[in-house]
Each structure stands twice: as structure tokens, then as C-alpha cells.
Amino acid sequence: MTLTSKDVAEITRLLEESTFTELHLEIDGLKISLRRGAPSSSGPSTTAASEVRPATPAAAPAAPDPNGHEVSAPLLGTFYRAPKPGAAPFVEVGSHVNADTIVGIIEVMKLMNAVRAGARGTVTQILGRDGALVEYGETLLRIARTS
Amino acid sequence: MSIRRILIANRGEIAVRIIRTCRILGIEAVLAASEADRDSLPARLADRTICIGPAQPSASYLKVATIVQAALGVGADAIHPGYGFLSERPELATLCEQQGVIFIGPTAAQIEAVGDKLRARAEAEAAAVPVVPGGAADSIEAALALAGEIGTPLLVKAVGGGGGRGMQRVDSLAQLPAMLEMAASEAGAAFGDARVYLERYITRGRHVEVQILGDGAGNVIHLGERDCSVQRRYQKLIEETPAPDLPAALRDGLHAAAARLARRLSYRGAGTVEFLVDRQREKFYFLEVNARIQVEHPVTEAVTGVDLIAEQIAIAEGSGLQLKQADIRPSGWALECRVNAEDPTREFSPSPGLLGEVDWPRGPGIRVDTHIAAGMRISPYYDSLMAKIIIHAADRPGAIRGMRQAIANTRIGGVATNLAFHAAVLADAEFQAGGVDTGYVARLLERDHG
Fold first, then answer.
1. What is the pLDDT confidence band of residue B447, given thresholds at 50, 70 and 90?
2. Closest approach of chain B CAs to the CA of A86, in angstroms?
3. CA distance B51 to chain A (A)
4. Contact B65 A76 (CB under 8 A)
5. Could you give the CA distance from residue A44 to residue B260 in angstroms, rounded to a whole number?
6. Residue of chain B whose alpha carbon sits nearest to that of A74
7. What is the mean pLDDT of residues B48-73?
């Protein structure tokens, strides 16, 4: 089966009317990821520079923001932002997450370990680069908590 | 292939030692460090440090997949495992072999062969190397029959043990069934292998080991022996080379036996064959093979002038042996004292904490291998070895004199150390006479405190 642009519009409308913030659909190799709330409209403090990785992310101390939450690598390995190559990233800047939302995976010798947000809020910065080695404790992304 | 970048999967003084040789050889050293070791001396000296996990060794230094992933991630050609941790775990060597990373050490099959102490015994016998009377104890009945033959006292040893761990002394046959069960359950818990075996307990034995290098193709040289009889509860405290008071025939016999065993295994890399020497009967027996660099390797380096870490790296990259047996011409006497953060007045219990002043002896013939400095913290997560002081002199009295002076000139503040213990041993007439057995330290402590 194939999806027409009309189908996509219909799916988008269904998401908008639903209570869900995200929808991932995969049919016969065709994948659609839709997310409610564009980063530009909801990101409180994000800028385009958020994708730029600091030289020493592990050593860079975070500003003590009481609402800030840092997701750090629970183990050393290769960080992936998406479930598989070519797939949409788990989260983007502006994504709303819950504590158990998967925000990335870390591969250690073919074993995939899910990294969870650990807090409810909005992703403000993504520091971990897709496919790069991350150290234990390295900050992967930052989240602004919402209560 | 030539090694250009090495991941060091270890910490402490041996990590510093490996970095030093990497520098000389122009090899980049990447340190795999736990969170507790991020600011350690080796971390400061390495070209790069990556954090592999939290302080607990089980979540960092002992994680095989993480270590190999780290090597691949930083583009290291090779992994140096140091001693302890994963150095003698065939799983690391195997994963390296699968992933195309050079493991600086023996093959996984060789580690496995010598790690199983019963297999190692069988290999020794096949190489015509004498073993302590003993054998497998598969059932209580078999064990009792065997124990009747070899007599008491005897040792119940774990097949998966080694390095003094997993041993129980049995003084009467009546104790044997209970000791066997206890030893088996302890061995199962500690080594994941409940098999135990029996060996005659040599009451006045000396621990003498032979350093070997093999190219993996059957070529083997030895670099002389080390006497490590000054030990407490099987933990070595003072080592020296050559072994004092050893007749030439016995010494030559040890060297030849170690080389024969290594040749039989087509051993690759640096290794040590440990023996128990019975001076009264003028006999020696095979104990075990340590398939790694040893803590006490510097005494051998001191008298031979050979950089053993450089030899390990050369063998690992396929350059073979750089030296022939005739090139090994030891000169003088070398002595090593292990300086530990432990308190001899409190049963040698570990004494972690914040270091105050640290000052080392300096001068010709003095080498200090250490990872500590003033203001650093001795972590409770790792072993208590702070430094090794090595003295090289023309003869044994000169080495002892030099070491007494060096110990007196060492200052370590903030934590308890065993420096006073070393000073007492070095001043003791029995040690000075040379050739003490492995029961010496226990007798000395009893005499002084008992």
C-alpha cells in the first residue's frame, strides 16, 4: 500500500485532535514521525547553537538551574539519537518528555542500552552526537523541567 | 602491524608505568579510567583519558565489552591490561581477537590453559616440570584416598583460584571432608568454578619465580628469577633478584623448567612461572603461571636493563623477541619494597584517605614506581599499593643498605603505611642472612607482637 499526501494530512489531523504529542507510523518500510509543538513555538531558551557540541562536554559544569535536568550517559559506548540509521531521532530540541521517555541509545558491543530522560519537561539542548563515543557521565542532553 | 595508540585498561602505578614506556616508544596512551580516577596521576600523564564507568571495579575496570568498545571508540590499535582486573580473563583476549584489537598479552587459549590450575599442572607435568604431589579431588572418597597418599599437612586449592586466593590448609584427614565442602562453596562463589584440588603443603618453602618472554611461535627466553618469599597471607611485600642462597644447579633447573613449560605452550608475551623451592630437599615444584606483567617486574628490569613493557608491546605487534638468551646478562642485585596504604599495627587493614606530604628518596640506583602525590586521595575502591621502591646495587648487602636508607627518606603523610614494617624486615638478621621461607613474615610478626 502507498500513502498519499491526503493520507498524511488525515493522519496529521488525527494527531492534532488526539491527546497525544507524538505519532510514529511505519507501513511497508515507509515511516512517518509526527510531533506536536514545533521547537520554535515551544522552546523557551533554545537557539540554533544548541546543536553545537562544546569542546569538553563532560567537564563543562552546567549552570545551576533549579529547573534544569541533565541526562548523562549511564555507560560508555556509542550514542545514537535514533532507533536505527535513517529513522527519526527519539527527541529533538523542544520535544516534551516524561521521566521514562527514551531519548537515545548507547551501544556497547552490539548491546543496545536505552537512555531515558529521567525527568518530565522539554528538551532544551542536545549535546550527544549521533554515532559518537560518549564517556560514562557525559552530558547527552538538557531538559527544562515542568511540574 | 605497528601499534600507534594503546588503550590502558588499568589504573594506579602500573598505568603510570605503561604510559612511561609508551612515551619512549612514541605511542599514544589513552587511559580508560573510572570516575574516581579521572584526576589521577596516570590520567594527567596520558595523552587522553576516557571515563569508562563509576568507581566500583565491577562497573568500570572489570567490564570487558566496555573496555573493547572504548578501544574501538578512541581508535586504539591495542589494549594493555596491566595486572589484576581483566589481565587474565580470557573473555577480554577473546573479544579483542574478534574485534581486531591487539591484546597485549597471551592468547585467550593460553590464558585459559594456565588459568585452570589443574590444566596448568598437567601442562607442567607434560613439560617434565615437577609439580607438588597432589591432584584433583572430584569426590570426598577420592580426596581422602589421595590425601592418604600425599599426607598432611596439605592444601585444598581452587582450580579457578591463584595468586594465593582460594587456598585452605588442612592439618588432619579428619578435617578434610568439611574443608573440602567449604573450599568448594567458597571457590564457586569467588571464581565461578567450584572445583578444588589437593596439594602437599611444603612447610618451609620459598617462593621463587622465573620471568619469561615468548614470541608465540615457540621461541622463549628467560630473564632470571625473583625471590618473593617475604609475604604475608600470600601477598608479596618484598621481592629480590637474584634469589639469595640458591645453589647454581637449582637455579639453572628453575630457569630451564620455566622455559620448557613456556615453549610447550608456545607462550606469547611476558609471563611468570612460579615455583615453590624446598631448600632442605634441594627440590622445586611448579605452582602456577601468571599470564601477565607482574607487580615485581622492576627488579628484573633493574638487573637486566630490559624494558619488559616495551618487550610486551614488540611481541604483541608481531616483532617477536628482540633479545636472545645470550643477551640477558644480569648484573648486581635488585630489591623491591611494596609501599601500601595499610596499617601494620591494625592487622594490615587498608587505610584509605587524603594524603598529606609525599616525598620520595632520590639518588643513583633508586627507582620509585608510584601513582600518588601530595593532596591526593587514596580510594577505598582499589588495592592499597601506593608505590614500589626499587634499589639496584652491586650486591645484596649494598641493596639492603640502599633500601634501608631509601625507606628512611620516604615521607608519606595522611595515611597509615607499612614503611615501618619494611624497615623492621630490612634490619632483621634472618632476612639479612638471606633465603627466608614464606612463613618468615608470620613468625616475625608473632615474635615482635606476640
1. confident
2. 21
3. 5
4. no
5. 73
6. B53
7. 97
Q: What is the pLDDT of residue B328?
A: 98
Domain span(s) for CATH 2.40.50.100 in chain A: 68-145
Domain containing B71 — which CATH number? 3.40.50.20
Confidence band (pLDDT; 50, 70, 90) for B133?
very high
Q: Is B433 left (phi over 0), alpha (psi -120 to 50) or beta?
A: alpha
User: Is there a single domain that holds both residue B413 and residue B318?
Assistant: yes
Q: From the CB of residue B183, how many other CB atoms can be counted at a distance below 10 Å?
A: 24
Whether B70 and A133 lie within 8 Å, measured CB to CB: yes
B120 in any annotated domain: no
Which of the residues B34, B64, B69 would you substitute to probe the A interface, choosing the one with the greatest number of A C-beta atoms within 10 Å?
Answer: B69
Evaluate whether residue B118 is within a structural domain: no
Question: What confidence score (pLDDT) does residue B280 get?
Answer: 84
d(CA B280, CA B182): 32
Name the closest residue on chain B to residue A72, using Cα atoms.
Answer: B53
Nearest CA in chain B to A131: B73
Question: Exposure of A60 by Cβ count < 10 A (0-12 exposed, 13-18 middle, 19+ buried)?
Answer: exposed
| CA-based end-to-end distance of chain B | 58
Catalytic residues of B: 292
Please state the rounded mean pLDDT for residues A9-34.
60
B308 lies in the same domain as B415 = yes
pLDDT bracket for residue B125 (50, 70, 90): very high
Residue entry with cell 588499568 = B10
Provide the β-strand partners of residue B368.
Answer: B389
B215 and B75 in a common domain: no
Q: Is the pTM of this model over 0.90?
A: no
**Contact at CB, B73 and A78, closer than 8 angstroms:** yes
Are A108 and B69 a contacting pair at CB < 8 A? yes
Contact A78/B53, CB-based, under 8 Å?
Answer: no
Q: Which residues of chain A does B95 touch, with a Cβ-Cβ cutoff of 8 Å?
A: 109
Q: Does 2.40.50.100 match the CATH number of domain A68-145?
A: yes
Closest CB from A77, A108, A136 relative to B35? A136
C-alpha distances in Å from residue B18, one per residue of A96, B21, B91:
47, 5, 22
Are B182 and B215 in the same domain? no
pLDDT of residue B303: 98
Per-residue pLDDT reduced to its tens digit, A85-140: 999 999 999 999 999 999 999 999 999 999 999 999 999 999 999 999 999 999 99
> Smallest CA–CA separation between B376 and chain A, in Å?
19
CB B144 within 8 A of CB B46: no
Q: Per the structure, how many domains does chain B have?
A: 3
Handedness of CA B53, B59, B62, B63 (dihedral sign): negative
